[in-house]
Amino acid sequence: MNIQHLKLLNYRTYEKLDLTFSPSMNIIYGNNGVGKTNLIESIYVLALTKSFRGIVDKVLIMNNKEFTKIVGKVENKYVDEYKIIINDKGKKVNINGNNIPKLSDYISKINIVLFNPDDLRFIKDIPATRRKYINLDISQINNSYLKNLNSYNKLLKQRNMYLKNMYVNSNKSKDYLKALTEKLVDYGINIYKFRKKYVEMLNNEIKDIYYKICGIDNLRIVYNSSYNNLSKEELLAKYEDNLEKDILFGVTNFSLNHDDIVFYMGDYNIKNYGSEGQQKNAIIAYKFALINIIHNIKGVYPILILDDLFSELDRSKINNILKFINKNIQTFITTTEIDKLNKDLLSSSKKFEILRDGKIREVI
Question: Which pLDDT tens digit goes with each residue over 251-267?
Answer without folding.
Answer: 999 999 999 999 999 99
